[in-house]
Amino acid sequence: MATALIIGASRGIGLELVKQYRADGWRVIATARKQEDCDALLALGAEPHKLDVNNVEAVAGIGWKLDGEELDVAILNAGVYGPRHDGFPMETDFNAVMHTNVLAAMRLLPVLAPMVAASRGDGKLAVLSSRMGSLSERSSPAGSLYRASKAALNSVLIDTALVHGKQGVTCVAFHPGWVRTDMGGDSADLSVEESAAGIRNTLATLPASDQATYRNYDGTTIGW
Ligand SMILES: NC(=O)c1ccc[n+]([C@@H]2O[C@H](COP(=O)([O-])OP(=O)(O)OC[C@H]3O[C@@H](n4cnc5c(N)ncnc54)[C@H](OP(=O)(O)O)[C@@H]3O)[C@@H](O)[C@H]2O)c1
Question: Cα(209) to centroid of ligand 1, in Å?
């Protein structure tokens, strides 16, 4: 049975990915930081683990709890937007956004990549980035801190591919679309169902590569 790991699966796109992989018959390992969200994931047939991605002991713990797993798909979905205003950034906001979106990835991706490499040779390691992280396609400075964090996340993913790509780990940074979630808001273009279905289809059809790729949820390429 194919196995997917979703990090940050309490709500929004992460939760929908769990539901769709389960509906498709996959074994799903999923993390959330609150016990009630872990209970809800268990009720969906997933194998839950409690994880705050900013807790360094918990990140190390997930490494040993999942030791020996062979992951066909691993998705680092957890992320925060930070302040909705631009201008002088406060250190607390900077730390919260950079820790969750970047530092956690620097810690988690090296732990997860060998489990993806241990799958049948065409494992996918994905992060939920954003088109706002693109340097080459940038046309607005709005959300500067979030943009910087997702650009840095993309950098971490590219480095992950340089280290683990040759072991059969295909690394993908996703823009999930503008999605109606707590983060995306009610006016966003896409439902979580449409976004998650596109991400899953892109992962299923993406050719194996030792180089990182940056994709829209519908599979089209985005410039780094
Ligand atoms: N929605 C969009 O339009 C959009 C667009 C571009 C990119 N994205 C990216 O897509 C991903 C998912 O977004 P979403 O719209 O589904 O967001 P969301 O509804 O706000 O959900 C965010 C998820 O991240 C988890 N999370 C945040 N901080 C965490 C931490 N320290 N440890 C563990 N989990 C943590 C949340 O868990 P809790 O419930 O415990 O807070 C929740 O499961 C994010 O990385 C986001 O940046 C979204």
Answer: 27
Q: Does the CB atom of residue 153 touch ligand 1 within 6 A? A: no
204: CB partners within 8 A, 6+ apart: none
Range of the domain at 85: 3-216
Task: With respect to residue 111, please indicate whether it lies within any of the assigned structural domains.
Answer: yes
What is the tens place of the pLDDT at every residue in 44-99? 999 999 999 999 999 999 999 999 999 999 999 999 999 998 889 999 999 999 99
Residue 221 resides in a domain: no
Is the confidence at residue 120, as pLDDT, over 90? Answer: no
pLDDT in tens, 6-48: 999 999 999 999 999 999 999 999 999 999 999 999 999 999 9
**Cα 159 to ligand 1 centroid, rounded to whole Å:** 23
Q: What is the CATH number of the domain that holds 36?
A: 3.40.50.720
The residue whose C-alpha atom lies closest to atom 29 belonging to ligand 1 is: 78
Ligand 1 within 6 A of 182 CB? yes
- Model confidence at 196, in pLDDT bands (50, 70, 90)? very high
56's torsion region: left (phi>0), alpha (psi -120 to 50) or beta? alpha
CA 207 – ligand 1 centroid, Å: 27
Residue 17's alpha-carbon distances to 187, 192, 197, 211, 212, in angstroms, are 21, 9, 8, 24, 21
